[in-house]
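DM from R.C. (forwarded with permission)

"hey, sorry to bug you on a friday — could you get me a structure for this? deadline for the figure draft is monday and I only need the backbone to look sensible"
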Amino acid sequence: MKLMKILPIALFVLAACAFLLPTAVADEWNNKTIVTFSEPVEVPGVGAQVLPAGTYIFKLMDSTSNRNIVQIFSADGNHLFTTILAIPNYRLKVTGKTVMTFRERGEGQPEAIRAWFYPGANWGQEFVYPKSRAIQLAAIVKEPVLATPIEVAEAPVEVLRSAPVEAVAPTGETIDMATVVEPPPAPVVEEAPAAVELPQTASFVPLFGLIGLMSLGTGVALWMFTKKNANERARLSNRAS
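My reply, with the result:
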């Protein structure tokens, strides 16, 4: 009787879990993050695109081996502000909360977003700016900025997947991307201890001598054991007779 009462409850719990699981997995897959900015923030787009202070949704739309595509939506998810090209960037220290990094600007100017790290992840998104704007930002913030020659906000996703990416210095020169993007640490390879070789002058004569002594000792022990057993049998035979 109790089983008939428990069975419907168990089936309901299983159905609820089956319904909720896809949503949780989807959020984990696209790194959906709700962010609230207390001040205006510049993001990659046409020219200097500035988001007013407010709440926004960041989503990872597409991910490949060497580049990612990020989209920024309004708080209700109905309006897409921009689609951004990003390059995976590594961080040594992982945190349990969302981390946004910015390029500091002069007083009264909105900070330009640099990277976005999802909670618990080593890899984050280093945002790529249109080259004309990247050169301006690099000169303002006095540090290299990732750049692409295409207008990221107007380019379709297919173009973003293969768009060239470079780093520009504050002087406007193109430099190595490694100055901006942190590569993962190289794996530590432990070397096996080297085998110890005997000197060339070493001789096996002492070893042969030791083996001989051990063999002689074993033979004497066996002879004594056999003799003792023979004497014991003879004593028991005499007592029986």
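R.C.: lifesaver. The first strand starts at residue 33 and ends at 37.
me: no worries. The longest helix spans residues 205-240.
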